[in-house]
Request: fold
Amino acid sequence: SGNLLQSLVSTGNICRSPIAEAVFRKLVTDEKLEHKWRTDSAAVSDWNVGRFPDSRALSCLRNHGIETAHKARQITKEDFQTFDHILCMDESNLRDLNRKSNQVKDCKAKIELLGTYDPEKQLIIEDPYYGSEKDFETVYEQCLRCCKAFLEKYH
Reply:
């Protein structure tokens, strides 16, 4: 089959979605599936376009041996037409994405919460921006569980 395309989306694309993108990318690389998946992340808002992820997100990933060179971008109309899956972090992202997708002809993406894949049933991945290092670690662990389960389902 063709490549599977997946984008991870959060509000600003500097904390949660770059963590999820980096985690998923490492999983597919470890499983030798990187030729099968195109993974990206994006923001619902345009607040941080062009910015690197939050330094706490980067240091959290580094602690787990993961690097990322992602720069924040806003989701585009084309994303809805090309990606198979658009996975987001919370209800407000979900609402925004559903609203945006309704304005796109031939939206192909299946839009859902990344947390629907969590074996521990933590549906929402809370924004750690105003939190501590520990909150970033929680996001990492949630993303890891969800991305593993997602990959098992679609691999």
About this structure: The chain has one domain: 4-154. The first helix runs from residue 16 to 30. The chain is about 40% helix and 15% strand.
